[in-house]
Model the fold of this input.
Amino acid sequence: MPAAGSGRRFGASIPKQYARIGGRSVIEWSLAPFLADARCAGVRVAIAPDDAQWAALNLVDPSGRLVAVAGGEDRWQSVQRGIEALPPEALDDAVLVHDAARPCLSRAAIDRLLDALPGSPDGAVLAVPLSDTLKRAADEPSRVEATVDRRGLWRAQTPQAARGAVLAAALARCASAGVAPTDEAQALEHAGLAPRLVEGEATNIKITTAGDLALAAAILAKESGMSMRVGSGYDVHAFGPGDHVMLGGVRIPHDRGVVAHSDGDVLLHALCDALLGAAGKGDIGQWFPDTDPRWRGADSSRFVTHVMEQLAADGWRVANVDLTLLAQAPRVAKHREAIVARVASLLGLPAGAVNLKATTTEGLGAIGRAEGLAAQASVLLHAAG
Done:
């Protein structure tokens, strides 16, 4: 798997293979079908020498099949180095080369490619026939010079496959001739071979621009069922000296305050726990411990903002939020719109996606005795896209 590219066209601060979709990086999605396949004897990922992102993933493969090697300046050089890192006996087997930025590969597509190989000594490549009408541009890109006959034209995808020794020899031949193949099939063609075209899938897209992430997220959501996550949160604080409480980022006048390390905003604390829970990232105590002096008296809106940054980095967005305040006092009816607006702003949501309810406990328990107040939160996350 060549993964040493910088992804300049992607237009982000990190290479496209490390962008996040639904809690996983693109390269993790791209690796997944191979690591889950018992037929796969080993995986070599060719990364840039200064790639700190790969180590940060901390991928664990109990089988020991996953090995990172130093890639080259060009894609074909990374493929060549990956093949060189294989054990000698692997050169007699089928070697599949897959783009690190193709996260939507299906098991069925791999099966078709492998099924075609025994009858394809020159190798095989996943591809889809062109269905759109093709136009050739004149000197001015806005003008059509001619319509191109699309008969017999296919759009190449990956994986592309060949016996390891055949592919290694083809790449070496390209290197000697000063040819830089854009894919493995072109290297095989340069060696005088004719790889077989195996019908792929339109959903096996390659991430090239940031806009492609949305499409990949939708495809993966449908195929993997990872499109939605639900989380719940709860928080409670006792009353103490003071003249107000913070609820949902809004200052509410009251004859008492709350005992808390931060500003004691039970609504935002419950919300943070729900968000973290849905994303599988622990709880608010792990991220903002009450033993850390940085958070003494802190505005809990900072907690929400930080949590939202973590979710966005993992490819999650908030769909909607349901908040419940449990308190005998203060009454929040006249502050409801302000609280909803503030929470919606923190989450980047329209106000209609945030619901706030308030209830008492009918005089029962510590809340009923007006010793404190509590909050519950439920959230729905969806994969960014």
User: Anything to note?
Assistant: The two ends are 25 Å apart (CA to CA). The chain has two domains: 2-124+161-224, 228-383. The chain has twelve helices and 18 strands.
